[in-house]
Amino acid sequence: MAGNDWLNGYLEAILDVGTSSKKKNDGKLMEIAKFEEKAKEKLFSPTKYFVEEVVNSFDESDLHRTWIKVIATRNTRERSNRLENMCWRIWHLARKKKQIEWDDAQRLAKRRVEREQGRNDAADDLSELSEGEKEIRCDGNNTNNNVLDRSLSLKDDHIIPRINSDLQIWSDHDNKSRHLYIVLISLHGLVRGENMELGRDSDTGGQVKYVVELARALANTKGVYRVDLLTRQISSPEVDCSYGEPIEMLTCPPDGSGSCGAYIIRIPCGPRDEYIAKESLWPYIPEFVDGALSHVVNMARALGEQVNGGKPTWPYVIHGHYADAGEVAAHLSGALNVPMVLTGHSLGRNKFEQLLKQGRHSREDINSTYKIVRRIEAEELGIDASEMVVTSTRQEIEEQWGLYDGFDLKLERKLRVRRRRGVSCLGRYMPRMVVIPPGMDFSYVTSQDTMEGDGDLKSLIGSDRSQSKRHLPPIWSEIMRFFTNPHKPTILALSRPDPKKNVTTLLKAFGENHALRELANLTLILGNRDDIEEMPNSSSVVLTTVLKLVDRYDLYGQVAYPKHHKQSDVPDIYRLAAKTKGVFINPALVEPFGLTIIEAAAYGLPVVATKNGGPVDILKALNNGLLVDPHDQKAIEDALLKLVADKNLWSECRKNGLKNIHRFSWPEHCKNYLSHVEHCRNRHPTTRLEIMPIPEEPMSDSLKDVEDLSLRFSVDGDFKSNVGELDAATRQRELIEAITRKASSNGNAAANYCPGRRQRLFVIATDCYDSNGDWSETFQALITNVMKSANLGLGVGRIGFVLITGSSLQETTEALKRFQINIEDFDALACRSGSEIYYPWKDLILDADYEFHIEYRWPGENVRSMVTRLARVEGSAEDDIQEYMGASSTRCFSYSVKPGAEARRTDELRQRLRMRGFRCNLVYTRTASRLNVVPLFASRVQVLRYLSVRWGIDLSKMAVFVGERGDTDNDDLLAGLHKTLILRGSVEYGSEKLLRSEDSFKREDIIPHDSPNISFVESYEIHDISQALEAIGMNS
User: Fold this and answer.
1) Where is the Glycosyl transferase family domain (predicted)?
2) How do 881-883 and 893-897 pair as beta strands?
3) What is the full DSSP assignment across 909-971?
4) Strand, coil or helix: 387
5) Of 137 and 340, which is predicted with more confidence?
6) SS3 for 799?
7) Distance, CA of 488 to CA of 646 (rounded, Å)
8) Is 761 helix (H, G, I), strand (E, B) or coil?
9) d(Cα 148, Cα 161) in Å, to the nearest integer?
10) What is the pLDDT of residues 928-977, one digit of tens each?
11) pLDDT surpassing 60 at residue 807
12) What whole-number distance in Å separates Cα of residue 569 and Cα of residue 444?
């Protein structure tokens, strides 16, 4: 039983914790309750710690042996009985952990098989040559094309040939006359331009600094007129009041610069007085999208007046940072039809798999804590919508983005080859992944930093240091006090006290190499600390180990480990190492990028860096150091000794770093960034979205009804163009005459009518179907009651009505006719799950602009037959799901689902389509009896945003009527700036059973529970609807 000594010790410790708690609180029930409540608030639980150690560190056979021993030595003592019971319970816990690990491994393996099948399907389709490809292949003289042709077989493609790019480098001279408007989005954290509170919490870190500096740098680039950085407005007493300011100027350009600068625009969403962590922001994203859309439209109008002759100046690009902002950018890109760019910063799927491998928490616990599944879906949507994904390193592309359903490196390169050659991609799409390292501000690097010399250092450590000390950085004195001989070169490591940063291996390498100890000192800058015991467990373990190693190797006088430093001290720390002719080292086990390596190079420090991750690309560009295996202690010793001892090598690395550092400057970053964006924009259609002009002067109340009526009868162009020049009486008289002429004519009375001056828009989106998927009688009563309730308030002409449904136009018009509802009472009909818009006042003509607006990335006929195969579950009959030609159109493929048949849920089907490179939106409608496959940017909620822009009606002035259930896109209609009225009892049968699988995110992750914009109405009767409208201010 000697092998079980540790296990027995842990079990005894658990019993001791329980016993001490019992003795302390015995006979005091009220105190026990208070103790348990207080224990929940504590960060550390001894019982939890020891149980986790037992479960994670020992095999179940060890637990079983201990249990057998306890039974064999059983006695009547309470402690023995408790030990027996505890062994049994923890043994079951260990078995459960093993089962969870097995289930997760099986799930991951199944997903990998499905991804491989999807890639193979795409490879098979794309390997069939089109006529254009055959013609090129016949040209035997074109050796380059023959090389490219060989890349068309994904199955045999082990070495991917280089694709020569036709990228045009951004030129300040050629683009200085342009007036580009760029929108950046970084949703979470505390974002401001000055005195950034970096490190205040996990949401306010390097990303905040990055996006602020990027906005400033872009605004200073020739050709960029304005940059807006959108973030969340926070008016909470917990944070500084500056985060509640709606606008903050980041740059103030000089007169005549051709730019109006960069700004932080804070958009309110969610509770106004709360600072919300990023994991809890997901339900409020639709509200942020609507607020951002309103700002961008207003800004496009204003900039158009300034620099574009009155035409809207739409964003050149919308760039989302992190998953939450990526989802916002995707919806804005779809609403405005402008290109989108995504930067992940850190990725959810990689984090999820790492947490699962640790085995400490179940899939459900991880998702509950981090909302990781919701985050992954946002990242997948970002891939769907992006023209380009910006990464810091190639490792990020291959090892992190490669885990996603929507991206495959080989397939992306193959599609790129086909596009370059003008060959069809058969409806498939992959975003372009580009490596653009983060820029850096080198303005704080002085000319003296790039020169040889150690004058300042001599003044500090020389005989006159007492007189000169006051002129030198305080952090220098704080570091130098550790050293017996401060003249030695300094080996500098700067990182968090995190086990992944591998500082302990560095310290062992230094301590065990006598030559290195004799030649150099070691400086460890490991964050800030007051009391190690009060730090998080992982940090305290690293720092405690560091102190023990210093003592073991007797490194006193040779290693510095100051307790505190400020962010402003970091440049001086680099300067100190450079002046001693030292070396910077980053020995991390894996380094996603390696910003500190670039910072060190800017001060002339040669570097030793890990070969795992971003440093590979950085050192390839800078050529200023050596790469090492972070697990190989001897390799770290040799690299450090080589760089410090060889003065010629040290000088060459310093010179190379200073010469090449400009590649990581912000101007260089912006030049590369805009070059790639321009290249991607060439594939994106130009937006045709127009904005309803704002009336120059408000109408008097006596004329509003007349004006609304005039719109209905389409006053001719001449009258409208001169109407603003007439006085009120003449205007009213001529208006009535024009209406009379139109009413007596035989022409189409509504040919040019546009409901742009409605005060409200009521949108009916209730999916009223019976169990068979046919229209129910509720449909008639609900529409009638909504219209009557509206007329009781603002009156006729002030409110417009829109009907949005998953049915086809023919089915919708037949239902309206059957229920004797006048179709002309509606301003618009949106059919087939938001893929089509028709206007009754235009003889139900299809909105061609909207059709063009949503068609981008629509795979069309290429996905038509694929859906029936992928939507069926294993073992089902072929006729369970068939295309329903009667409801299909060019922008919507409809499929009937046989009653009782099983079909894949929308998230599962979307996943399989993504794996094959298809980007679509999927909606089950008519009580799950029909599946609509529509373009990615087509949806019922996007119809609202499109009409808001086209008709100039603010989303906050729209009321959307929905049921408690409905089509699978019903939840998407609930959140946002519009007012949502959920009519109880209006929809008896919905399609929600085919919405999400058990492994998907929860409903509460997309619908806010406390939104003032969502109201429940007890019924769909007139008085209940009227009261609800009155309560939310929509009927006055």
Assistant:
1) 485-658
2) antiparallel
3) HHHHHHHTT--EEEEEETTTTEEEEEETT--HHHHHHHHHHHHT--GGGEEEEEESS-STTTG
4) coil
5) 340
6) strand
7) 14
8) strand
9) 7
10) 999 999 999 999 999 999 999 999 999 999 999 999 999 999 999 999 99
11) yes
12) 12
Q: How many residues does the chain have?
A: 1036
Residue (of 773, 595, 759, 576) closest to 669 by Cα position = 595
Distances (CA, A) of 923 to 376, 766, 891, 934, 967: 20, 15, 13, 8, 7
Looking at per-residue pLDDT, the higher value among 16 and 860 belongs to 860
The token duo for 380 is 């997948």
For residue 21, which amino acid is it?
S
**Among candidates 576, 636, 645, which has minimal Cα distance to 604?**
576
Place of tokens 């039809």: 337
Distance CA 608, CA 583 (A): 7
> What is the DSSP code (8-state) at residue 75?
-
**What angle, rounded to 10 degrees, do the helices at 348-358 and 78-127 form?**
140
- As a whole number, mean pLDDT of residues 694-723 equals 43
**pTM score, two decimals?**
0.79
Distance, in Å, from the CA atom of 650 to the CA atom of 647, rounded to the nearest integer, reads: 5
Give the tens place of pLDDT for each residue, 267-302.
Answer: 999 998 999 999 999 999 999 999 999 999 999 999
- Map residue 204 onto helix, strand or coil: coil
Rounded Cα distance between 342 and 400, Å, is 14
pLDDT of the residue at 736? 54
How many angstroms separate the CA atoms of 149 and 414, rounded? 10
**764 neighbors 801 (Cβ within 8 angstroms):** yes
Per the CB < 8 A criterion, the answer to whether 380 and 405 are in contact is yes
Residue 202, amino acid = S
**Rounded CA separation 140/966 (Å):** 59
- CA–CA separation, 292 vs 187, rounded Å? 11
What distance in Å separates the CA atoms of residue 645 and residue 486, rounded to the nearest whole number? 17
d(CA 70, CA 782): 70
Q: Can you point out the beta strands (E) in 153-199?
A: 180-185
| Between residues 384 and 662, the one the model is more confident about | 384
CA distance 609 to 642: 14
Q: What is the chain's mean pLDDT, rounded?
A: 82
| Alpha-carbon span 984 to 998, nearest angstrom | 26
For 814-862, the three-class secondary structure string (H helix, E strand, C coil) is: HHHHHCCCCHHHCCEEEECCCCEEEEHHHCCEECHHHHHHHCCCCCCHH
- How far apart (Å, rounded) are the C-alpha atoms in residues 203 and 208? 9
- Within 485-634, strands assigned E span 490-494, 521-525, 559-560, 583-586, 607-610, 625-628
Q: Output the six-digit token pair for 110.
A: 């199944």
Rounded Cα distance, 102 and 108, in Å: 10
End-to-end CA distance of the chain: 81
Are the beta carbons of 584 and 596 closer than 8 angstroms?
yes
CA atoms within 13 A on the CB side of 235: 11
The answer to whether the CB of 834 falls within 8 A of the CB of 939 is yes
> Residue 206 has what pLDDT?
81
Phi-psi region of 964 (alpha: psi -120 to 50; beta: other; left: phi over 0): alpha
Q: For residue 92, what are its two tokens?
A: 């079951």
pLDDT in tens, 539-578: 888 999 999 999 999 999 999 999 998 888 999 999 999 9
Q: How far apart are CA 143 and CA 140, in angstroms?
A: 7
Q: What is the pLDDT of residues 911-927, one digit of tens each?
A: 999 999 999 999 999 99
Give the neighbor-by-neighbor strand order of the sheet with 317-321: 247-249, 261-267, 224-232, 180-185, 317-321, 340-343, 388-391, 432-435
CA distance 189 to 182: 21
Q: DSSP letters along 357-378, please?
A: HH-SS-HHHHHHHH-HHHHHHH
Residues 944-960 as b/e (b if ≥16 CB within 10 A, e otherwise) read bbbbbbbbbbebbbbbb
